Amino acid sequence: MDVELETAIQKIRQAAKDAGKFSAMYCVDGAQGRRYAEMGFNMISVTGDVLALQNYVGHQLEEAKSSKPQDVTKFDAKPQGPYGQ
Protein backbone atom coordinates (compact mmCIF):
# COMPACT_ATOMS: atom_id res chain seq x y z
CA MET A 1 0.00 0.00 0.00
CA ASP A 2 1.17 3.49 -0.76
CA VAL A 3 2.96 5.10 2.21
CA GLU A 4 0.95 8.32 1.89
CA LEU A 5 -2.33 6.39 2.02
CA GLU A 6 -1.14 4.29 4.97
CA THR A 7 -0.17 7.46 6.86
CA ALA A 8 -3.56 9.04 6.15
CA ILE A 9 -5.38 5.92 7.36
CA GLN A 10 -3.40 5.94 10.61
CA LYS A 11 -4.10 9.66 11.15
CA ILE A 12 -7.83 9.11 10.68
CA ARG A 13 -7.82 6.11 13.06
CA GLN A 14 -5.95 8.12 15.68
CA ALA A 15 -8.27 11.13 15.29
CA ALA A 16 -11.27 8.87 15.84
CA LYS A 17 -9.66 7.36 18.93
CA ASP A 18 -8.74 10.80 20.30
CA ALA A 19 -12.37 11.89 19.81
CA GLY A 20 -13.64 8.82 21.67
CA LYS A 21 -15.08 7.29 18.48
CA PHE A 22 -14.78 3.81 17.03
CA SER A 23 -12.93 3.37 13.77
CA ALA A 24 -13.83 0.87 11.07
CA MET A 25 -12.04 -0.42 8.00
CA TYR A 26 -13.45 -2.21 4.98
CA CYS A 27 -11.19 -5.16 4.17
CA VAL A 28 -11.37 -7.75 1.41
CA ASP A 29 -9.92 -10.74 3.26
CA GLY A 30 -9.00 -12.05 6.68
CA ALA A 31 -5.30 -11.23 6.39
CA GLN A 32 -6.01 -7.59 5.62
CA GLY A 33 -8.62 -7.51 8.37
CA ARG A 34 -6.13 -8.89 10.90
CA ARG A 35 -3.59 -6.25 9.86
CA TYR A 36 -6.03 -3.41 10.48
CA ALA A 37 -7.26 -4.95 13.73
CA GLU A 38 -3.64 -5.05 14.90
CA MET A 39 -3.34 -1.36 13.96
CA GLY A 40 -6.16 -0.63 16.41
CA PHE A 41 -9.30 -0.43 14.29
CA ASN A 42 -12.38 -1.34 16.32
CA MET A 43 -14.43 -2.82 13.49
CA ILE A 44 -13.31 -4.56 10.31
CA SER A 45 -14.85 -6.58 7.52
CA VAL A 46 -13.21 -9.77 6.33
CA THR A 47 -14.63 -9.99 2.81
CA GLY A 48 -16.73 -8.08 0.36
CA ASP A 49 -20.25 -8.98 -0.62
CA VAL A 50 -19.36 -9.72 -4.24
CA LEU A 51 -16.51 -12.08 -3.31
CA ALA A 52 -18.64 -13.84 -0.70
CA LEU A 53 -21.53 -14.29 -3.11
CA GLN A 54 -19.28 -15.48 -5.94
CA ASN A 55 -17.65 -18.06 -3.68
CA TYR A 56 -20.86 -19.29 -2.15
CA VAL A 57 -22.82 -19.50 -5.40
CA GLY A 58 -19.87 -21.12 -7.17
CA HIS A 59 -19.56 -23.80 -4.50
CA GLN A 60 -23.30 -24.39 -4.51
CA LEU A 61 -23.27 -24.81 -8.28
CA GLU A 62 -20.41 -27.31 -8.00
CA GLU A 63 -22.41 -29.17 -5.37
CA ALA A 64 -25.48 -29.29 -7.60
CA LYS A 65 -23.44 -30.65 -10.54
CA SER A 66 -21.43 -33.16 -8.51
CA SER A 67 -22.25 -36.61 -7.23
CA LYS A 68 -19.71 -36.00 -4.44
CA PRO A 69 -20.60 -33.50 -1.63
CA GLN A 70 -18.45 -30.35 -1.53
CA ASP A 71 -17.18 -28.54 1.57
CA VAL A 72 -18.77 -25.09 1.19
CA THR A 73 -16.87 -23.71 4.18
CA LYS A 74 -13.64 -23.45 2.14
CA PHE A 75 -13.56 -20.39 -0.09
CA ASP A 76 -10.72 -19.67 -2.46
CA ALA A 77 -11.43 -16.35 -4.21
CA LYS A 78 -8.56 -13.95 -4.43
CA PRO A 79 -9.19 -10.28 -3.60
CA GLN A 80 -9.08 -7.86 -6.51
CA GLY A 81 -8.79 -4.12 -6.81
CA PRO A 82 -6.71 -1.62 -4.84
CA TYR A 83 -7.41 -3.14 -1.42
CA GLY A 84 -6.60 -6.69 -2.49
CA GLN A 85 -2.89 -6.03 -2.85
The biggest beta sheet, please?
A: 2 strands, parallel
Going by helix content, strand content and strand pairing, the class is: mainly alpha
Number of helices: 3
What Rg do the Cα atoms give? 17 Å
Mean pLDDT reading: 84
User: What coarse outline follows from CA principal-axis ratios?
Assistant: elongated
Euclidean distance between termini CA atoms: 7 Å
The H-and-E topology, N to C, reads as HEHEH
Q: What is the beta-strand fraction?
A: under 5%
**Low-pLDDT sequence parts:** none
Q: Find the count of extended strands (DSSP E, 2+ residues).
A: 2
How are the strands of the largest sheet arranged?
A: 1-2
Helix content: 40-55%
Quick summary:
The protein is mainly alpha-helical and 85 residues long. Helices cover 51% and strands 5% of the residues. It contains 3 helices and 2 strands, in the order H-E-H-E-H.
What attributes does this structure have?
85 residues; mainly alpha; two-stranded parallel sheet
What does it look like?
A two-stranded parallel sheet has the order 1-2. The protein starts with a helix and ends in a 20-residue tail after the last helix. It contains 3 helices and 2 strands. The longest helix is centred in the C-terminal third of the chain and has 17 residues. It is elongated, with a radius of gyration of 17 Å. The chain is mainly alpha-helical and 85 residues long. Helix 2 links the parallel strand 1 and strand 2. Helices cover 51% and strands 5% of the residues.
